[in-house]
Design a protein that fits this description.
GO molecular function, one term: core promoter sequence-specific DNA binding
Distance between the termini: 41 Å
GO biological process, one term: regulation of DNA-templated transcription
Strand content: under 5%
Shape: elongated
Organism: Photorhabdus khanii NC19
InterPro entries: Antitox_HigA
Protein name: Putative transcription regulator
Radius of gyration: 24 Å
Number of strands: 0
Order of helices and strands: HHHHHHH
Number of helices: 7
Length: 125
């Protein structure tokens, strides 16, 4: 799926003023002014798309387009309000080891002798 960029109404108006020869269909395209600014807007947006996830609309339908735009708006709100810091590299290795059921011995071919693996996992190297 291609990433969609959200453009403000003001940007569209500016573009159309500078490019009066732009495709007439794009000039008449429906412009969504849904913006998620508050936690209440966010909660309402989540409720609005919940039913669409349960009963997924077909691609190309207005319902699908609405869902896609709402998901992008929700993602943008979440990225701004609830950023996720990257994990500590050592903790990420330990987590992956636990997930995969790996032991220190399993890391030796990639890292080296057992003591070297322990040095890395203990933050000494």
């Amino acid at each position: 799926m291609t990433a969609m960029k959200i453009i403000s109404v003001a940007s569209l108006k500016t573009f159309w003023e500078k490019h009066p020869d732009a495709d007439p269909e794009s000039r008449s395209a429906k412009v969504r002014e849904d913006v998620i600014r508050t936690k209440q807007d966010y909660q309402e947006a989540l409720k609005a798309i919940a039913s669409l996830f349960d009963n997924q609309p077909e691609i190309g339908t207005p319902e699908f387009d609405h869902m896609e735009v709402m998901v992008l708006l929700i993602e943008a709100y979440e990225a701004e309000r609830y950023p996720i810091d990257p994990p500590d590299p050592i903790e990420a290795i330990k987590f992956r080891m636990e997930q995969s059921g790996l032991t220190v011995k399993d890391l030796e071919p990639a890292i080296g002798k057992t003591n070297r693996v322990y040095e890395i996992l203990n933050g000494k190297r």
